[in-house]
Amino acid sequence: MELISSNNEPLRTVSSSCSVSQCGAAMTIIGLCVVLAVVALRLATAVSTIKSQYRIFEIDYQNNRFLKDGEPFQYVSGSLHYFRVPRVYWRERLERLRQYRAAGLNAVCTYIEWSRHESSPGTYSFSGENDFEYFVQLAQEEDLLVILRPGPYICSERDFGGYPTWLLHENPNMGLRTNESSHTHFVESWLSVLLPRIQPLLYGNGGPVIMLQVENEYGSFSACDGHYTRWLRDVFRTYVGDNAVLFTTDGAGSGYLKCGTIPGVLATVDFGPTTNVSREFDALRQYQKHGPLVNSEFYTGWLTHWGDPKMGSRSTSSIVNSTRQLLALNASFNFYVFHGGTSFGLSTGANISPFLPQVTSYDFDAPISESGNLTEKYYAIRSVISEFMPVPDIPVESSGTMDYGTVLLAPKISLFDSQTAIEYPAFEYPQTFESLQQYSGFMFYETRLPPRFPGLGYLLANNVHDRTIVCLNKRPVGVLSRSDNIYQMILVGQAGQMLGLLVENQGHINYQNMTDLKGLVENVTLNGDTLTGWTHTGYPMTNVSQIATLPNISSVALPAFFGGSFSLPTAAPRDVPLGTFVDMTGWGKGILYVNGYNLGRYWPEMGPQMSLYLPGSFLRQNNTVLVMELGTRHPNSTLRLVAEPVVNMIQHSHGHNDSQINVQLAH
User: Which of 421, 507, 400 is nearest to 157 (CA)?
Assistant: First the structure.
């Protein structure tokens, strides 16, 4: 049989002697082969599709490494906290971190701050500046993996370590960071809201989040409650499963790891630059024989308290040397911090023994400065990482800042005459801030001097928290200070005068002893007799914007508000103006607002921070400035808007103001 093509050409010859059954069998075999070929092709396509969608980040304990989609993986991360950077800058700063890929960075790390998201029990906020999910999505768009540290305790030099301070109203004696039911009740309630939001962001679910930290540096906390940390681990696992790695972070010492590690959770350590990085992991290997080596907080700088001799720092050369050693060890690590930002408002915390409140700036001597400028440290780190990893040639640039000149300020109104007060009921004995459900700002306690007061007395306000301006008839006559352990003074006055104590909350303790009530936490005595009959007036400092519109007056008694205005140059319009620094030199102590934004506390009398960062996103063409000055002497009548931060190198121990040298430092 001859097969003929369409153009009548012979194709091939087939024997015409085969039977019908033989031909049918041959055709069946051919059809079966075609079907099998199609099935095989579809199966190969399906396997390829499954493989391309297969996402898992896991620990290879046997080989002491991470695996990302089955391949060995080392991360180099940098901390950037969404709550310390205005939302408008998130993408810019993340691009800066992505451009840190030009130096090897492949991940970004952030805490999640409980207190920001649940400002009162059951009231949640995850939008605007609190939209951490958007922050994570931006990181993914910038091709960055994400490490989340949801606490619930985070420290991070934040007020109350990130815990909501309303917990102290619910139960002042609550066993914080323990398995006590009054505590775990609120933790579980919070996590039942937070963790479902994190779930779709996990790496195994298609998101960028590869790791979640359980608690934070628990080995530094005296409770050492393993029941609590294991309970917390199980709560996390319920939502995370195998879709991300759970880890702990503790100091690189046996004393920390003893109580900080959690069975079944990857243990990591934190430490700063050192001459021998390998030795810093020795204690970790006592508790975790195998698994990847991780430094979860590799310190690029350090925190700063009011009254410190200088702003916290770490040398660039020491950072570079330790970075080189970490990379050579194939250790994963997170620069803490890569970009610190600012603790705007009244969000800073404090340390204890002695009580040391922290400054507003969180510059931290980081590779990217508080204002978003790239530092020498940035470029040095970029160079050393390029010795170990391919570095794409991506252009980088600083955010830039600007000098906007001098602003003239005029008196507006005394704090005591302002319409910012909250009147509380009178009590026989003084109440704490927390008992009255006020968690920031000031409380003014008043009572009358006894009828038989002899005119001279010994005033004792034991353990007042934290700093107090003592007044007679609302005129300052002295200062008591927790930081300086000054709780008493000689009082000169007259019987029947109003004795007032304006107590400032300088930030709840964020480390170690967490139960930190504010205000008059003990009774006040005069010549040994307990004073009674107290009125309470609160100044939370959250409702002051209308004061900027008040008319100027010629003079005012302190503490008081001062206001002014300034306009931006009209040349070269920008979507977002350049930021600046507000130099508060010549002022005493207080709070600064620009266009209603609370930039934070200033305290140039103490230093070392003399200026406050003003982001360009807070600026308009015409701007209002409002200062609430606490000082006991009249301040300057001006302030300056300068392009560089101003730092005061104090040449004395904490609590005294003998000698100062003013220096401007460019970051």
Answer: 507
Main-chain phi, psi angles of 149, to 5 degrees: -125, 85
Catalytic residue IDs: 217, 297
Phi, psi at 624, each rounded to 5° = -110, 140
Residue 374 DSSP class = B
Are 468 and 502 in contact by the 8 Å Cβ rule? The answer is: yes
Q: CB of 584 within 8 A of CB of 614?
A: no
In the three-class reduction of DSSP (H, G, I as helix; E, B as strand; rest coil), residue 278 is classed as: helix
How many Cα atoms within 13 Å fall on the side-chain side of residue 399? 32
| Cβ-based neighbours of 456, under 8 Å, separated by 6 or more | 490, 491, 492
C-alpha span between 372 and 369 (Å, rounded): 5
Distance CA 488, CA 453 (A): 17
Distances in Å between the Cα of 432 and the Cα atoms of 444, 533, 650 are 11, 15, 33
577, β-bridge pairs: none
Find out whether 377 and 314 touch, Cβ atoms under 8 Å. Answer: no
Tokens of 384: 């050393």
Distance set, CA 26 to CA 16, 304, 391 (Å): 14, 86, 60
- CB hemisphere CA count around 154 (13 angstroms): 25
d(CA 147, CA 139): 11
Q: Along the chain (667 residues), what's the average pLDDT of each consecutive run of 10 residues?
A: 36 39 48 49 45 80 98 96 94 72 83 98 97 96 94 98 98 97 98 98 98 98 97 98 98 97 98 98 98 98 97 97 98 97 98 96 97 93 91 80 97 96 97 98 98 97 97 97 97 98 98 93 98 98 94 96 94 80 96 98 96 96 97 85 87 34 29
For residues 559 and 500, what is the distance between their CA atoms, to the nearest angstrom? 13
The answer to whether the CB of 235 falls within 8 A of the CB of 191 is yes
pTM: 0.89
**Residue 328 to residues 70, 271, 458, Cα–Cα distance (Å):** 22, 17, 64
For residues 2 and 14, give the distance between their C-alpha atoms in angstroms, rounded to a whole number.
Answer: 6
Token output for 185: 């009740």
What distance in Å separates the CA atoms of residue 186 and residue 420, rounded to the nearest whole number? 31
Return the structure tokens found at 591: 């709070």
User: Is the Cα torsion angle 243, 74, 230, 148 positive or negative in sign?
Assistant: negative
Phi first, then psi: give them for residue 447, nearest 5 degrees.
-150, 165
DSSP 505: -
> How far apart (Å, rounded) are the C-alpha atoms in residues 618 and 579?
8
